[in-house]
Design brief:
alpha/beta, six-stranded mixed β-sheet, five-stranded antiparallel β-sheet, 35% helix
Length: 277
């Protein structure tokens, strides 16, 4: 059976005044209809991996791979127009913070309708009805009211739900969520994760969940990939995360707070140069 997504030796390089910076270095994995978590600290290459899959990497960057395919479609050699049609319709990405991802001068409803009409030939009334239904699906209590609001008029949690609705309204097969809960408080985080979990299960999608929160990923995803300095250092099932062998993963786990324990001083990662090799 063809994998939903195949990534083989993906590399993303940015030119700078002092030479090339390799943001992603030889990342390889496959994804089926499952929840895959990608974790690592800031700068480890998590988001750039997701953006490369989406085709959202800046134009001056260099992207290479032995294979980067969505099903049997080659993402690297796909024409730009075909890639734009795929993005949003078949593959969607939830960005980190709705304050910077939503258009501030367009109402939330108009943005969702625009996404839908870009990819499907639907009437204005049908597009609005589907947008309202999608807002209701992400547990917004008064979808008609929120439909007419601007992004600055809603809370962070509601803005994130609106962003999820926008990305899912066309029924994508693959969803990339780039730290979708990082700007939210703990209770809203759980609500958003519950919404994602339910929608992924009901729609049979593949999900790439990018985060720096190891505990969150381990409780939500089926598999976990750990990245450091642009490389994958370990891959294992979330159920076996406590049995991780790589010292970087062990260090991340050791930094997690534990209820009832008194640890002073707090543990600090002892970085090894060979982790970057």
């Amino acid at each position: 059976m063809t994998a939903l997504l195949t990534v083989d030796d993906l590399r993303v390089t940015f030119p700078t005044r002092t030479g090339e910076v390799q943001a992603v270095r030889g990342v390889s994995f496959t994804l089926g209809k499952e929840r895959l978590g990608i974790v690592g600290e800031s700068g480890s290459g998590k988001s750039q991996t997701g953006r490369a899959i989406m085709g959202l990497t800046p134009g001056h960057a260099k992207i290479t791979a032995k294979k980067l395919a969505f099903g049997d479609r080659d993402l690297l050699n796909m024409p730009a127009a075909e890639r734009r049609d795929l993005r949003g319709k078949k593959v969607a990405m939830i960005l980190q913070d709705p304050k910077y991802s939503l258009n501030p001068v367009m109402t939330i409803g108009r943005q969702i309708v625009e996404t839908l009409k870009t990819h499907e030939k639907v009437s204005g009334s049908e597009a609005k009805a589907r947008a309202l239904a999608m807002l209701e699906a992400v547990q917004i209590r008064d979808p008609q009211r929120v439909f007419d609001l601007y992004p600055h008029e809603v809370s962070g949690g509601m803005g994130q739900r609106a962003m999820i609705a926008m990305m899912l309204v066309c029924g994508p097969e693959l969803l990339i969520a780039d730290e979708p809960t990082s700007a939210l408080d703990v209770t809203v985080q759980l609500e958003v994760l519950g919404i994602l979990d339910k929608l992924v299960a009901e729609r049979g999608m593949g999900l790439i969940f990018i985060s720096h929160d190891l505990r969150l990923v381990s409780s939500f995803c089926d598999r976990v990939i750990v990245m450091y300095a642009g490389r994958i250092v370990e891959e294992l099932s979330s159920a076996n995360l406590a049995e991780a062998q790589h010292p970087y993963t062990r260090g991340l786990l050791n930094c997690l707070p534990t209820i009832g324990s008194d640890r002073h001083p707090l543990p600090v990662l002892d970085r090894k140069p060979e982790w970057s090799l």
